[in-house]
UniProtKB/TrEMBL annotation:
Sorted UniProt keywords: Membrane, Transmembrane, Transmembrane helix
Highest taxon of source: Bacteria
Domain PH, residue spans: 42-167
Record keyword Membrane present: yes
Name of the protein in question: Transporter
Transmembrane segments: 6-24
Length: 171
């Protein structure tokens, strides 16, 4: 390799690294800005109660997929830590639904805030290919601020989704 070609290659590599850095910085800035704009819509989440009754739907292990602004299934909520996917356990009590997330604060969904529990094919950029559109358990609920959001959860065993749907039909 001669010297001019080597210098040209190095300059190209440096320009490429700087360009990638600028794109990543712009994406992070957009994520933060979107979070700031959504903070007013989301407000404060309901607090977890000190005591609850016995579970009406036993703990379901799976993955928390995030929250979206209803009814737009692909408009991800990025305020706070609601936009991060993580392993989770979902349990239903007479007083509400508990989403215990690994590495994040638990989410408490009061029973009177629950609008619907249903299955969907996907949520916020996460589509699960299934024949019966039951890849994601979606819980639509109303925040204290009045905003409606969908919380997505994918059970490790998709058959567990039916327990959640049966519970919803009983009410």
């Amino acid at each position: 390799m001669n010297t001019p070609t080597m210098v040209g290659s190095l300059i190209f590599a440096v320009v490429l690294v700087v360009l990638i850095g600028v794109v990543i910085r712009m994406m992070m800035r957009g994520w933060r800005r979107r979070g700031q704009l959504q903070d007013a819509l989301i407000g404060t989440l309901p607090t977890v109660p000190d005591t609850v009754g016995p579970p009406t739907v036993d703990a379901t292990r799976g993955q928390y997929l995030g929250c979206t602004l209803a009814p737009k299934w692909n408009d991800r909520v990025v305020a706070g830590d609601l936009g991060y996917r993580t392993k989770a356990v979902l349990t239903r009590y007479p007083e509400g639904i508990m989403v215990q997330r690994s590495g994040a604060r638990p989410i408490w969904i009061p029973q009177d805030a629950v609008i619907a529990v249903r299955t969907e094919r996907g949520i916020a950029g996460r589509a699960i290919p299934t024949r019966h559109n039951n890849g994601v358990l979606a819980i639509r609920w109303r925040l204290p601020s009045g905003t409606e959001i969908d919380t997505g959860f994918r059970a490790d065993d998709r058959a567990d989704h039916s327990r959640w749907l049966e519970e919803e039909e009983d009410e």
